[in-house]
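Entry 12.
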Amino acid sequence: MSDGEGAVPDEGTAEIIRDQLGKIVETNHVPYREAAELALARFRKFDRWEVEWVLAELLEEERPDVVIPNAVIDTGSYRRSGPTTLVHPPTTECWDRYFDQLTRKNAPGLDELRRTTSEVVGLLADPNERDATRKGLVMGNVQSGKTRHFAGVIARAMDAGYRFVIVLSGINNNLREQTQSRLDHDLFIDPVSWVHLTRTDDTDFEKEPNLQATLGRKSQLWGCAVVKKNKTRLENLRWSLSQMPIEARRRCPILIIDDEADQATPNSQADRDKISAINKKLREIWKLVAVGSYVAYTATPFANVLMDPEDSEDLFPSDFVYSLEPGDGYFGAERVFGLASSDPDHPGLDDDGLDMVRTVMDADGLRPPSKVLDREEFDPDLPPSLVDAVEWFIVASAIRRARGQVDHSSMLVHTTHYTAPHFAMQGSLHALVTELVDQVRQGEVDRFKESWDQESGRVRSADGEVMPSWDAVEGEIPNILRDVEVIVDNGKSEDRLNYDDDDPRTVIAVGGGTLARGLTLEGLVVSYFTRTSNTYDTLMQMGRWFGYRPGYDDLPRIWMTDGLDQDYAFLARVENELRDEIRSIGGSEYTPAEVGVKVRTHPGRLEITGAGKMQKAWLVQVGMSGVRLQTFLMDGRPEVTAQNKLVADALVAGARFEPLRDGMSAVIARGVDNEAVRAFLKSFRYQADLKTFTRSDRAAAMDDWMGKYASGPTWNVVLMGNSAPGAAEQYGEFDLGGTNVAKLARTPLRERATLPKLDFKAVMSPMDRIVDIDPSAYAGQAIKTEDDRIAVRRQFADGMGLVVLYPLSNKGVVPSDSSSSRVSMPQDAGEDLMAFGIVFPAAEGEGRLDDSFVSVRPLVEPALSDEEDDVFEGTEE
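Predicted 3D structure (C-alpha cells):
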C-alpha cells in the first residue's frame, strides 16, 4: 500500500520491522526513535511511513500512562524524559531463565512476581536514553521474599538493556554471602553471559581497573557484584567506576539494588553539615552513574522516607515509592500479634493475633553482665521456658517429618547482642540435646508428649494440614534428635547459617546482630527472643519469625518477654497506616517528595529510627492524650540540679501537699494549674540527649496541645519519697514547698554514667501511671498491663493529668564486687537532682486522639542541634 493518510503496512512487513527495531535497541543500546533511523539507513526496502507506523504502534503499546497501583510516582519526571514513560524490555532471555528456575522449584506466588517485577522495572530509567537516572524505593515485608523479587527486577532490567548490576547487601559478611549464594544459584547462572565481580568465597569487592574492557561498548556481557556496605568495599567500587570515562559509563547502564536500604544508607549524622561515611560513599558512587537506576529495598522504610527530599545528591526515592504486598500465606506482625487499637478509650487489640506467642517470665538470668571479662565467663542455666521451647522445636520438627516434609527446620535463640554468651549458650543447648537423646534411647518421651498436649492444635492450619497422630510424631523424634545441630552465627563464629537444598538441616541457631536483619532462617518454627530495641526498624527487623510457612503454618511458636507482643501489635498498626497512605495517593498528582509520607510516633519509649536519621523529620500532627513520658536521662551537674529545684518550687507555689496514702512516703498536690505545668516543662533543664523534651518541634507541639486541651486546674503533682526505714538519714531529705520526703536510692547504668549524662533507663514505675488514684476506686479492675492502666486512668482520673517528681540521692551505692549493670552515683552530683514523669490528661474532642505523626514536610521548620555518632564507621571488612 502506498504512503498516505490511514495507510497500514501488511502484517508480515510490520512484524519484520518490529523484530529489526528490537534487535537494534538491544544491540546498540539506543531508544526506539534512533533505532528507527538506523533501520531506515540499513534497510532500503523499508519505506519511512512503514517504519513510522510501527514506531508509533510500539510507543503506544509499550509506553502507557504511568499509573501503577500501590505506588507514588513523580509522573512529571517521566514525562520530562521525552515521549516514553515506562521501560519495557525488548527481550525476555534473562527473565525467562530466572522464572524457569523458580518454576522448577515450585516457588509460590509466581504470577504475582511476574506482575510486580514488570511494574517496578517499568519505573526504572530507560537504559537507552542518554543521561537518564531514577531513584526509587520498594517497600517489602520482613522475610517476604524481597531477594527473590529484586532478582526478578534485575533479570528484567538486563533484558531491557542494563549492563551492570550492583547489589548492596547489608553490613555483615554472612548476609552478603547468603545473598551472593542465592543470586548465583538462581540468577547469575549462565557463565557465558555473566561476569562475576564478587563470589561467595572471595573477600568482597576489590578494585577493578578494567571495568571498561569487561563491560565496554563491544561487550555483550552482564556484570554483577554483591557488595557489603563497608567503607573500604564501597571505595573500591567508587574507584573502579571512576576509571571508566564518562562516555563508557553512558554506554553501560547501571542498576543499583540497595538491600536493607534503611541500614547504613541514610545519613546518620544529625549535624546538618556532616555526612556519615557510608552515605557519603554511596552518594559518590551514585554520582558516577551516568545512566541507570537506584532502587532501595527494605521492609522498614522509615529512615528512607524521612531523608531530605530537597537534597538531590542524596538517595531519597524521588521518582517512585512502590508498596510490595505480601502473597497469600504470609505471616506478618498483624497476623502473629494482632493490631493495636486506635481507640484510646479501648486500648488493646482491634484484631487478635494467632495463639503463637508464649510469654517468658524467667529470662532475667540470661541477661549478661556489663563488664567484658565477666561476660567471657558468663554461663547461666537454661531457664525452663527455653527448655520448653526446645522441646516444642523437636516435636514440631517431628510433626513436619510425619507430614512428609523433609526440609530445613530451624529454631532461633536470640537473647543478647554480646557475642561471648552465645558460645556458652551453645554449650548449654548441646548438653540439653544430649540429655534428650539419652532419655529417648531409654524410652522416656513423656516431656515431648506433654509439649505435644500443650501446643498441638492451638493454631489451625490455613493450608488445611492435618495433625498427624502422636504415634507417628513419636516415631520421628529420635530422627530429629539425631539431626539437630546447635550452631552460633555471629561476628566471631566460624559457623555460617547456610542452607543447601539437597541437604536439609535441623538447626538451633544462636546469635545476635547477624541474625537480627536480612538473614533468612529456612523452615523457622520456634523463636526464643528476649532482646528488645527502642526503634521501630530494629525491632521489626529482629522479627525473623515473619515470613511464609507453607505446610506448617500451624506450628510456629514465639517465646518472648512480656510487653514485646504489644510493641509488635503497635508496629503492625504503623505498617498498615504507611501502606494505606501510599495506596491512597497512588495515581494522584503528588510526587514522593511532595507527599511527605507520615509515620505514626509511639506514645511511650519507642522511637521511629535512630535520631541522626531523623534530622529532616518534624512533627506534623500531635496528640498527647494519656501519653506517659519521663526524664530517664538526667544532667547531674550541681548548677543544673539547682536550677531544676527552683523550677519545681515554682510548679507547686501556692499548692497544698497532703499525704498520698497510708504506707507510702509520698505527698500529693491536687488541682495544679495547667499554666504552671507548661512553665515547668519549658523551664526545666533537660539532659541534651533526651529528644522527647529537647527537640524544639516536639516541645512546641506538646505545649500547643496543652494550651488547647488541658487548660485550667487539670493536674495532680506527686512528690515521691523513700519509705525504707532510715532512708532519710542514709540518703538525705528533699524539701519542696515546705514538705520533706526521703530521697530515692537510684543508680545509673554503668556504660553511660557521666555527670552530664546519667542514664537511669527508667525512673517511673508502670504503676505510677495511676498513683494519684485511690485504689478503692478501681477495685476489681485489671491493672496488670499498660493497656489496663491506661483504661483505669481514663475511667477514674476525672480528666486530670499527672506530674510525678522523683528526688534522687547522690549517695546511691552499688557494691564494688557486684556484677550489676548499674554503678554508684557520682559523689559530685548535685544534691537537688530530681527526675520527673508526666502523664497527660485524657482530652475530649479532637485532642483525645492520641495520634502523633512525623514527616519530612513540616508545618513549621524549627532549628535542631542533635548529635549522633556514625554507628557504621566500623563495619567489618
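Annotation: The first strand starts at residue 71 and ends at 73. Residues 80-84, 857-877 have pLDDT under 50 and may be disordered.
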